[in-house]
Amino acid sequence: MARHPDCYLDHKRSGLKPWLSAVGVKNTHNKKMGMSNKKRDLFMKKRSYFLLTICALFSLSLLAGCGMRALLTSQLLPDNDWPKKRVMVMPAADLTGIPLHESIDTIREELTKILQKTGCFNLCPHNKTKKYHSFTPGESIDPELLREAKERGMNAIIFETINPIELNPGKSGIWPFRKKAWSCTVSMDIDIVDVNSETILLSKEIADNITLSSEETTEQTEKGGTTETKKKALKECLPNILKEAANAASLSLNQKFWTGRIVSIDTKEIIINAGSDVGLRPGVVLEVFSKGEYITSFNKQTYQLPGPKAGEIKIVSLKTMHSIAKPIDGDGFKVGQIVRVKD
């Protein structure tokens, strides 16, 4: 029986190639396949390099963390870190409703340490023998605290308030191993008051979230949570909150020019409430301004407009906390007038 011609296609492929060559048919299919394979390999290599680059950059950003953010923000800061500003950090106000005696002291101490590391500020302790009213945005500052800050030559006062800790029942883990847990939100308000202008420089709430396992499941704990859970949430979230608070404070304080005050006038000598501790030196020229009017912004914060320029004075000698200056332009200088380094 004669075979159908198509049966030759079912035969071994190796036997087909000599026949194609013999009849003069070129095997262009393999060449095209080789070309496409090379292009595909090149494309895959390029894509692999691209993905590796993205992964590397992402890993570096995670490892850098707050350090990278601090580096980026430091380059955005205006050059207002000279002279150094004297800053007083007040004890944190506790609104959590749970006993936090040690934690409250830690908040002020840790925030002070972080700000001190920047090298841009002189951090001064508050008077621990006196009790002051806690600060509330929109209300007047404790006049006794403001008076003390002016006498000590402070530029700013930082207030911290720990808000009530929010706990919401939920679940954590992967099904079917999910367990009951608490979704915790810890927040802190940071407010900065400019002493010389008696205005608010910063008013910001900083929050952090964490999920904690819930071992107790009674009706009472499911509604409000336990004191220990809240303390643990505060302990876990506080370091990140304080780092962000210090970063926000640094940005806010460095956006404003340093200012001092005239505290005494004796014949032709003018005493300034800042000295070598803030970086002043002999020969520095200071502009003197009278106090301007107060205005209230749309967000109910009060700002003081700069008053007219009264003249200029030059520092002739220094002490640690004070400077002695002489007039070089203008007259009518008065105690309480604001001074600023001339550009």
Description:
The longest helix is centred in the N-terminal third of the chain and has 37 residues, at 28-64. This protein has 7 helices and 13 strands. Strand 6 and strand 7 form a beta hairpin. It is an alpha+beta fold and 343 residues long. It has 3 domains: 1-64, no CATH class; 81-254, Double Stranded RNA Binding Domain; 260-341, FlgT, C-terminal domain (Thrombin, subunit H, Beta Barrel), CATH 2.40.10. The protein has helices at 16-22, 28-64, 66-76, 101-118, 143-151, 219-224, 227-254; strands spanning 85-89, 93-94, 121-124, 156-162, 166-172, 179-194, 199-213, 260-266, 269-272, 285-296, 302-318, 323-330, 338-341. Strands 1, 2, 3, 4, 5, 6 and 7 form a 7-stranded mixed sheet that branches. Strands 8-9-12-11-10-13 form a 6-stranded antiparallel barrel.
Q: Topology of this protein?
A:
Elements: H1 16-22, H2 28-64, H3 66-76, E1 85-89, E2 93-94, H4 101-118, E3 121-124, H5 143-151, E4 156-162, E5 166-172, E6 179-194, E7 199-213, H6 219-224, H7 227-254, E8 260-266, E9 269-272, E10 285-296, E11 302-318, E12 323-330, E13 338-341
